Amino acid sequence: MKTRRAGHRGVLTKLLKKVEPSSEELLQEYDVSELSTIRGLIVKKQEMIDQLNEKIVEELSEEEVSEEIEEADRYTYDIEMSVTKLSKIIKESEITVKESIGADYYWDIVGDRVIRGSGPTAVQSKVGYLLSGPIQLNSNINNQSTSSIMNILTPHRLEECEIHKFWEIESIGTETDSEVKAKTDLQEMTTYQENNIHLKDNRYIAKFPWKQEHPELPSNEMIARKRAYNVINRLAKEPEMLKIYGNIINDQEIRGFIEKVETPDETTNRVHYIPHHPVKKDSSTTPIRLVYDCSCRQDSESPRLNDCLSSTPPQLNKLTDILTRFRYGKYALTTYIEKAFLQIGLDEEDRDSTRFFWPRDPSNPNSELETYRFMVILFGATCSQFILHATLLKHLSTVTSATAEILKRDLYVDNVLTSVHTEEAALNFFEESRELMTNAGFNLRTWKSNSKQLSNEAIKANVLDTDSETKILGMRWDAKSDMLTLAKLNEDRIDIDNSQATKREILSKSSSIYDPLGILGPVTVRAKLLVQTLWKEGYDWDQVLPSSIVKSWYEILDDIRDVTVNTKIARHYFNDQNENESNEKITLHVFVDAS
Fold first, then answer.
1. Domain over 221-313+345-381 is classified CATH 3.30.505
2. End-to-end CA gap in the chain
3. Helices and strands (H, E) in the chain, number of each type
4. For site-directed labelling of 471, which of 112, 216, 314, 321 has its Cα 20 to 30 A away?
5. pTM of the full predicted structure?
């Protein structure tokens, strides 16, 4: 099979070489229909290679599997980049008029910069460069119709796009969303809450937010069946893992998260099968977890389940606001909703679109596959967070109480972080919030607090977080000492004199540092200034940088490593404040530099 794959790869390599030139050169050599044909051939060949890859992996030893997958992934990445490149060229070549601007507004948008050359003239404007003027044609052409295509391509690599994320951490908590978009998203969520979520037997039932004009969703039955057998055969090499995988599915059925479909052919609802696979976890109790692939395609032309579902983002509370309030009161507390997504029932009409396969007897790889389907919202669909957030807000809005308002204000996905000024208030929140969420089938568990009274109550209810350190939205909290620390930078010290670095590496590592409260600002700003320098000097992404810059970078990296390891800050802003002291005595003074 490896010989057959090598043959297919040889053909594919020739196709990939055809698309190596720049976008401009490709459009000069091929028309759009030819590029579409090449893209189709690449996709078809890759599908054939993927099928061979799966068969090859099944025959390899455990030691060889990871190396084979890594090699295949590298090859797949090159193919996907070429397909993406072709798709972008094809899409941008399909000219559509989106907006017409009258000549009477010309001077309102035109700028001062003019670029002249042998072709059309480019004039700078508020909407980009405007092109006008004659196009040079072949003087030998007589009485023939001619057509000209002009393309202005502004490609952005992934690293360039992540520059925005690299800098936006500076404005966390101060940025404002588009009012129009915020109102639109809020209206969409309100409409969804009214029409698609209802309470039944102390449990909320929700429908999928299907796009109004989504393409027809295929069943995906064949590919889901095939991938199920691949998972079984792979896990069969580790019988203990196969047993754990089967136990997880069995537990989901017992807890009412999934159900067996006894008569798969007897339904009038939309039917779609979802492949699933294991992902290893660093856990002694649950070494693997199941991942349901809602982005699986039947083929390159078919839509995915996620393509057919609305992806309206949930209007989550801002991280900085939550963390700031978490540091305000003398007593802090954290908790989370146990298996939050799985506590929301899925409407009967949508359940058949979440089918999947699992064998009747997992210990026998040749056992007949049985059909299951979800009875709850599965984690993995593009709309899962939106449904969870909309459901929680709808439930909390049915109650008028201080506890409900705190939950709405300090909830982030399925985590709750807040603080209060007295232990009495902490106990009251503990009791009321648990009762409030239980009324909708949600269980608040894994409580952590520096309040001894609350901790004792959590022990009695068997919901106390026993870990010495608690993760809170990217940071770490030691409730015993009431100190906050940052996620540590896992980088070994490097021999600076014998090391190399590139702009890509520096940007990647710099942007991976998460500091929502700006505690590391004095150190990380040096990394940002270094990145600015690399852009000014015009270094390419993978160009080896001069030793002087490499030395500066690793010195900064060492400082960031040291500060993430050694920095601890008090969680409570006002350590000296008496819990009975009036909060009205606290004032906040802000200085703003307008330069």
1. no
2. 66
3. 18, 19
4. 314
5. 0.68
